[in-house]
């Protein structure tokens, strides 16, 4: 396998690696969103229930992202130095943190599902269906922690093929299980929303087992023994935690902002939250196409910084930023033009249809700004070790600009949901301006890998 770090790596290799990660991210997103798509035919109540219940899993995902994005920062720089021993310490510490968090979230989802879903809705049908879905899916959180950790570290060491193959296989199995469990096909009873949760839980454990077999049977660089995984000392843990804490706080603050947005939309009515849930799924699919660019940018920029090639790191990240912005403008146009076609897959009332159509159009116009912010924060600033500035930027723009404007639009001006979302987009514009200024200052470039 071609090494991830190679000062003279070819453009063709960068393109292949980016393409593989983009495809894997897209397929992985579809896997995570397939429940929403496959319960769409059950009506707005089921759509709202699954969307709201998944807010809790999404919170867990962002905590995971904080841990694993920190891992990628260190791992990519360690891989640039060819320090496999320290790479194993990163894996061990990441696993410890992620599993501990997963256990806490799993307990809450199983024991308190109605309280969690009740934060977002008082509709009794949505509450009951959402609590059922959350309780069952909560059983899978630990398996998700282990699997996601190893996949993130595998990418940092240059393996982009296995994650793609795994995601493709998972997608096929997930569609099969959802088809059988949700709609009562192939001899199974019809379980509706409950069946979607059962399918998701079974799939996570199967996926985790396959990942572990591949890593240890194939002797991947991520294949470390128990002693190697937990060989990190207090100094290592403290330095890792210093970086990861900023990333985790950043992701949690950002996600709590998303939760607040969704609370606002949920209080605007079932049609509004159903429109937002559909739009979020579609938007995620479009933005996920650029996750591969963001991941590749993060990994290779970190490789260059770890090898002491700071100017090359800046040029690499600048090229990825430009390509991402151009591509996202084109994809935004595609989203606007295909909005009606997308909505043909959903069974919606006329009010929900109009809300969702306008909302998809608004999303298409602001897509490039959102994508620019993703690669600036995750793909560039963080991978250079600059974790505090993005945290402050998210805090100021989201909680100082976006959320106040959304509250104003929803509860004072009583605007339709698509106008409220457009008002809140002022956050993204302010964030992009601050992020670009920081990027061109080059103050984000720092070698934080431990020797």
From TrEMBL:
Its membrane topology: Multi-pass membrane protein
InterPro entries: MATE_fam, MdtK-like, YsiQ
A Pfam family matched in the record: MatE
GO cellular component terms attached to this protein's record: plasma membrane
Location(s) in or outside the cell: Cell membrane
Alphabetical UniProt keywords: Cell membrane, Membrane, Transmembrane, Transmembrane helix, Transport
Residues passing through the membrane, by range: 12-31, 91-112, 132-153, 160-181, 193-217, 243-264, 284-307, 319-337, 357-381, 393-411
Protein name: Putative MATE family efflux protein
